[in-house]
Amino acid sequence: MKYPLHIRDIIQSDPFILADPVTKKYYTYAARFNPDRFKQQKAKGVFHALVSEDLINWSEPVQVFEKGDFWSDLDYWAPECHIWNDKYYIFSTFRASGKYRVCQCLVADDPLGPFAPAGKGPVTPKGWQCLDGSLYIDRKNKPWMVFCHEWMQVYDGQIAIVPLSDDLSESIGEPTILFRASDAPWRHTEPSYVTDGCFTHRCKDGSLIMLWSSFSEFGYTTGYAKSLSGEITGPWEQVKDPLYALDGGHPMLFYTFDGKLMMSLHSPNVHGKKRILLFEMEEKGSDLQIINECTGNWFEKRDDGRGSMYKFKEDCTEDPCFPK
User: Fold this and answer.
1) Is residue 121 part of a domain?
2) pLDDT for the residue 92
3) Range(s) of the domain holding residue 294
4) What is the pLDDT of residues 211-230, one digit of tens each?
5) What is this structure's pTM?
6) For residue 132, which of 78, 194, 211, 52 has the smallest C-alpha distance?
7) Largest CA-CA distance found in the chain, in angstroms, rounded
8) 173/162 Cα distance (integer angstroms)
């Protein structure tokens, strides 16, 4: 496989990185990547993946799902690929005309698919407008979907969970609201209380944290919360200060193949200009801190938020530097 696409050139919202232990390659997923450059991609009802061996050089888009008789043809937002019971599951947001936005899983035997629907319909609650579903496995090895209940429906956006069947095809219980956007001291009060991009992480000391995004006075912002019980049901306590507040959000964490903890998010939060930022991270108990942004995508891509006044006018030419 050839890798002609540089990390700084990828245009992508909500970047999720799968470090696949089987193929020893990295994968990221979207409905489409760089549509002006890769015109062969179908415009609707599909997912594509990019593949990398080093997080710097990536493949051309590979189609991994096509809707066929699948019920949804709209949105296809924020796909995450998780490994569960030796299969690959894409968690994503879908919608059909006149219907609420919901979350459902797709399943395949390979990270490049072909993926097929897991189950006959959404797993988020009927009558709820939802997005950004993510997988959580509890200490009893039971799967849950963590998701956002949209601010457009409830004003004060929520982070919620629902238990899933072992094949992730359906919910097997009632939803539980974990916290609301207004719980975070750093969130902005206008024009809305947004919850985006929830992602759970079990720290090395056993504590459980959840990354998520909203808007602060500085623009699109990433913060995190801690479960005081160490379980998904909480109660959840918001960390006072945001983790990243330079117009970047929809975060997730992954380990590189040499064991480094990394965070991925997109910035700036401007459609058509979103780039992947990858950060080397540090855990101190249940506290999470940034060590360094590794891609160089912070360098000249600022358009909104507090970082815009500090951006450089010229492009970055220094090579991306990842920890060894």
Assistant:
1) yes
2) 98
3) 5-310
4) 999 999 888 999 999 999 99
5) 0.96
6) 78
7) 53
8) 6
